[in-house]
Specification:
about 110 residues, mainly beta, Rieske Iron-sulfur Protein, 4-stranded antiparallel β-sheet, 3-stranded antiparallel β-sheet, 10 strands, binds FE2/S2 (inorganic) cluster
Length: about 110
């Protein structure tokens, strides 16, 4: 398990990641997507568990689900659970926003 910290402060991370825009970061050997709503961050595997499309080009709907651009499968960003489609769940990485920045844990 590895912990990574994005930014140097809470304010810096809030500026770095605009609301409801999916950003990609590479932590070690893992590509992850980041999406923020207010001060809540969602950190998830950057590639769809169905056929590996990039979720960085995905869309977020009003229920807080990410929609894959390739076959439009939907995943809950809180839990990673697949909401429409037939594949495994999306990997979600735990994160915590604190005064040092955004800490993301990669198992
Ligand atoms: S690759 Fe994402 S839904 Fe098929």
């Amino acid at each position: 398990m590895k912990k990574f910290t994005l930014g140097n402060s809470k304010e810096e991370v809030l500026k770095l990641v605009p609301e409801r825009v999916i950003k990609k970061v590479i932590l070690g050997e893992t590509s992850i997507g980041i999406m923020r709503k207010g001060e809540t961050f969602h950190t998830f595997h950057a590639f769809c568990p169905h056929r590996g499309a990039s979720l960085i080009q995905g869309n977020i709907n009003s229920s807080g689900e990410i929609i894959c651009p390739l076959h439009q499968y939907r995943f809950d960003l809180e839990t990673g659970q697949v909401k429409s489609g037939y594949c495994g769940d999306l990997t979600i990485y735990p994160n915590e926003l604190n005064e040092n920045g955004l800490e993301i844990t990669i198992p």
